[in-house]
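Q&A log
Question type: sequence-to-structure
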Amino acid sequence: MRLEIGKIFIKDIQFADVTKIENGVLFVNKEEMIKEIWDDEHIASVDLDIARPGESVRITPVKDVIEPRVKVEGNGGIFPGVLSKVDTVGEGRTHVLKGMAVVTTGKIVGFQEGIIDMTGLGAEYTPFSKTVNLVLIAEPSEGVKQHDHEKSVRFLGFKAARYLGELARNLEADEVSTYETKPLLEQIAEYPELPKVGYVYMLQTQGLLHDTYVYGVDAKQIVPTLLYPTEIMDGAIVSGNCVSACDKNPTYVHLNNGVIEELYAQHGKEINFLGVIITNENVYLADKERSSNWTSKLCKYLGLDAVIVSQEGFGNPDTDLIMNCKKIETAGVKTVIVTDEYAGRDGASQSLADADAKADAVVTGGNANQYVVLPKLDKVIGHIEYVNIIAGGNEHSLREDGSLEVEIQTITGATNETGFGYLSAKTF
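Response status: OK
Response body:
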C-alpha cells in the first residue's frame, strides 16, 4: 500500500463566527461545532477551550488525544469501523492538521486519566505541551455507567477530530510525506541484501476500561494478525483506554506511531521494513500463551531477521512482553523490546514484573515512578481535584498552594512505549 500524508500546519486556534483554516490558523465557531458533534444522552454538557504551548494552563483529567485527519483519495474513511464504514484503509491520500490536537476531558471516567501541562516542568514530559490543543470538556449525565461514559467521551473526541479534519479536505498541503509497503514477496525482493524487520505492536486489552479497538473491534477478541503500517496512520487502531497516562497510547500516538515512523525512515537504507504484527495483552494465562505463540509463529512465517516489540501498560502485560520476546528469539528472530519501567521512586526496585535472559536488548522509556513537583499554573481546564486519586497521585498530591506532588506516570505521554518522538531504529 502507498499512502501520501498531506500536512496542513496549524499555528494557532481561535474562536470565531466561521469555522475555517486560514493562513495556518484554525478558526472555530464553538456553538456550531458543539451542535454538530454532540447528540449523546450520556453527556450532559459539552464545552470547548484552547490551550497553547507556553501558556500557564493545566488540562486534567485527560481521556484521549486525537489528531484531525481526513481521507482525500483512496479506499474508506478515517476511523474505519468506528465512524466510517469497515473498509480497508491505508492507501491513497490523507490530509492531517499538524501541530494541533483534540484533547478530551471532563469528570474522571476511571482512575487513570492524566495531566497535560502547557508550561513548566510537566510540559517537558509530554509531547502534547507542544501542540495547540482544542480541549473538549464533556460532563456526564447523572448516574451514567462507567462504560457508557467512556464510550461517549471516546466517540465525542473522534467526531470532533473528523469535523475539524474535513476542513482540510480541499486545502493544498504544506508538506507531503509518502509511505509505501508492497506485497510481501515483492517487498522482500526489492531489498534482498537488507535485514528483514517487522514491528510487533502490543495493544492494551485487559478490559475494565483498558481497551483498544481495531477496525472497531475490541482487540481482546482478535488473534495476532498482520497490518500494513499505513492502515494505522488512517485510524485503523484507536484508543479506548483509561490506563495510566504515561502507559497508554492515545489515539494521536497510534496515528503517529514513533516506531513505525523510524522504521520507514530506515527502510531501503539499513533495513527492509515488512510490516506490523498486532497482538493483544490478555488477563488469563491460556490467552497469553495463545497470542504469544501466534506472534512468534507469524514472525517466523514472514522470515523476519529482527523485530521491535512495544508494550502498552505495565505489570500484568510485562508477562505478555517477555513471552513474546522469548518465543520470537527462540524462533531465531532477533528482538528489541520497548517498554517503560516501574522501578520505585528510588529506582532500586525490579523494573518489570517479568524477565528472561533472552530479553537482552531493551529501549527504555524511563521510570514511571519518578517523583516530580509540578508548579501551580494559572488556569485549569477540567477538574483538578482528581489528581489526588489518579494512578501516580495520592491524597496529598494537591498542595494548598496549587502545586502537585506526583509520579510522572500521571503525565500523558511521559514514558510512552511506542517510542513517540525518541526511538531510533538503529537498535539491532
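Response note: Helices lie at 30-37, 146-165, 184-190, 229-233, 251-255, 258-266, 285-301, 316-330.
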